[in-house]
Automatic annotation (TrEMBL):
UniProt cross-references to Pfam families, sorted A to Z: UNC-50
Keyword Iron-sulfur: no
Subcellular location: Membrane
Gene Ontology cellular-component terms listed: Golgi membrane
Name by which UniProt lists this protein: Unc-50-like protein
Native source organism of the sequence: Hermetia illucens (Black soldier fly)
InterPro entries xrefs: UNC-50 (IPR007881)
Bilayer topology annotation: Multi-pass membrane protein
Length: 274
C-alpha cells in the first residue's frame, strides 16, 4: 500500500498572522529521526514514549539540542518541526524523550548551583532538586497542560469535527515554554544573587530581579502562544497573549509596592525544604 508523499523536513512553513501556515521556507533545524506513517492510538504512543525513556541510545539528542537553542533565538521554527511530525507520524506530540531528558538534566544542574548559592546542606540540596524537578516542572506542567488541553478542545477548535489536541502535545508546549525561564531564573539570575537578595532593599535590586521574572514570564507566554497558534484548526489563540499586559501590570505593581520577587521566592524555596 502506498502512502501519499509528505513534505520533507528540509522545508518549513511560515506563519501567516495567527491563522496558521502559508508560505514555505527552509528550516535550519535537522529533520526528526525515525520516519513513520503509522497512526497509533494515544495509549500506544504513550507506551512507546515511556518505553524509550531509559533507552538513551535510541534518543536523538542532536535534534533535542537544536530545539533548545532555537527556543531562545527563534522558537517559531521549533513548532514548524512539530508540524512535520504531524505530517509524517500522525501526531504533534514528541515520540522521542530526548528533550525531556535534557530538561531534567538542566534542572538538576542549575538547581545544584542554586542550592550551592543558598548554602544548603547535602540532604536539603537533594530535597530541593526533587521539588524543582517533580513539583515545579512536572507536576505544575501536568496542571497547566491539562488546563490548556481542556480549553483548546472545548473552546478554540474551529469545529467539533476537527481533531482533538493531544494531551501529550499540550505537555510538550509546557516543556518548551519552561526551558527559557529555567535558564533565566536558575542560571543567569545567580550571577546577580548578591544584588537581588542580599541587597533587596535597594530599588535597583528590585528592578533587576523583577525584570528577570518579567522576561521569564514573557518567554513562557510567547512560546505557549506559538505552540497553539501553529495548529491550523484552532481559533482565537491570540487570547493567550493577554498574559503579556497582565504580566507587565504585575511587574509595575511589584515595583510600586517595593516587593522584591526574587527575595520572596528564595524565602519560599527555603521554607519548603526546612
Amino acid at each position: 500500500m502506498k502512502y501519499p508523499t509528505s513534505p520533507t523536513p528540509s522545508t518549513s512553513t511560515s506563519f501567516a498572522g495567527t491563522g496558521g501556515f502559508a508560505s514555505r521556507s527552509t528550516s535550519p533545524l535537522p529533520p526528526p529521526a525515525q520516519y513513520s506513517a503509522n497512526c497509533l492510538s494515544a495509549t500506544s504512543k504513550s507506551y512507546r514514549f515511556l518505553r524509550r525513556l531509559f533507552k538513551f541510545n535510541q534518543m536523538d539528542f542532536e535534534f533535542a539540542l537544536w530545539q533548545v537553542l532555537y527556543l531562545f533565538i527563534a522558537p517559531q521554527k521549533v513548532y514548524r518541526n512539530f508540524h512535520y511530525r504531524k505530517q509524517t507520524k500522525s501526531q504533534f506530540a514528541r515520540d522521542d524523550p530526548a528533550f525531556l531528558v535534557l530538561l531534567v538534566v538542566s534542572l538538576c544542574v542549575t538547581s545544584l548551583a542554586f542550592a550551592g548559592v543558598l548554602g544548603l546542606t547535602f540532604a536539603r540540596t537533594l530535597w530541593f532538586v526533587f521539588y524543582v524537578v517533580f513539583v515545579d516542572c512536572i507536576f505544575a506542567g501536568i496542571i497547566v497542560a491539562t488546563f490548556f488541553w481542556l480549553v483548546t478542545n472545548r473552546f478554540l477548535r474551529n469545529s467539533q469535527l476537527d481533531p482533538d489536541i493531544e494531551w501529550g502535545y499540550a505537555f510538550d508546549v509546557h516543556l518548551n515554554a519552561f526551558f527559557p525561564p529555567l535558564v533565566i531564573l536558575h542560571f543567569f539570575q545567580l550571577f546577580f544573587y548578591g544584588w537581588l537578595v542580599l541587597r533587596s532593599e535597594l530599588f535597583l535590586s528590585r528592578l533587576l530581579g523583577n525584570t528577570f521574572w518579567l522576561l521569564a514570564f514573557s518567554y513562557y507566554i510567547y512560546i505557549t502562544f506559538l505552540g497553539y497558534n501553529c495548529i491550523p484548526h484552532l481559533k482565537n489563540t491570540r487570547y493567550i497573549l493577554l498574559g503579556f499586559p497582565i504580566a507587565f501590570i504585575l511587574y509595575v505593581v511589584t515595583l510600586v509596592m517595593a516587593w522584591n520577587v526574587t527575595y520572596s521566592f528564595v524565602d519560599f524555596y527555603k521554607y519548603r525544604i526546612y
